[in-house]
């Protein structure tokens, strides 16, 4: 099995990285936000791109909470464009390199995101996502705590495109899409609770709106009921891990992404280390 981890722990190994120094002179995108963040919004560039895994067919990067997956018409360069430039520069490709987007993360969410480097990989990965053959694991920091501490939720979400917001319904209905996920409380750091989430479907804002509907909005997610915005306009939701069968090599792949430098994420990592040690003793 192929496995990679940059910060924190995985089931097989752990490693660490030095703190990365960010160039605050990079383009500040904070003006794009309705509620002005207290810190500059620094987006990924070719020089600062955090590559987690790469081969001839796919590349996985660690998305910053400020990165956008697709262009929003406001002038910010998309992460897909940055990855394409990185590939072109690394391999001295003339013109633009092919990069296919197979899934997405909301702008204020960080974590692992997978891209295809070939049309064959793009087609196969798209089918795998559609057939729910790829498992993603998220970490969330919420307040207040979730009760019960573990659950399997099936609900129906309706998206309001004008507001860029989804709403939870308990029954099927017009324009409502079935959404399914499992969650488990892993620990606490008062007043916050650390939650692991495994979505089965990939609906618009699914984790964010579902946790909020349980009375436990994600820290910083004012769109869904959090009290305050985070200083860097992020929300404390991180795509921690992705597990899948390689679309070409047919080998099991696990990719783990380190959260951004943050006290609560550091506490979450320490908790994860402790839980993995207990698991390994069994």
Structure description:
The chain has 4 helices and 14 strands. It has helices at residues 79-90, 119-130, 206-213, 263-281, and strands spanning 2-5, 8-9, 14-15, 51-54, 58-63, 100-101, 110-116, 135-142, 150-160, 165-169, 176-189, 192-199, 237-245, 252-256. A hairpin with an 8-residue loop joins strand 6 (100-101) and strand 7. The strands form 2 sheets. Strands 1, 4, 5, 6, 7, 8, 9, 10, 11, 12, 13 and 14 form a 12-stranded mixed beta sheet that branches. The chain has 282 residues and is of the alpha+beta class. Residues 1-31 have low confidence and may be disordered.
| Mean pLDDT value | 88
Q: What's the helical proportion of residues?
A: 10-25%
The count of strands amounts to: 14
Order of helices and strands: EEEEEHEEHEEEEEHEEH
Give the strand content. Answer: 25-35%
Mind telling me which CATH architecture this is? 2-Layer Sandwich
Layout of helices and strands:
Elements: E1 2-5, E2 8-9, E3 14-15, E4 51-54, E5 58-63, H1 79-90, E6 100-101, E7 110-116, H2 119-130, E8 135-142, E9 150-160, E10 165-169, E11 176-189, E12 192-199, H3 206-213, E13 237-245, E14 252-256, H4 263-281
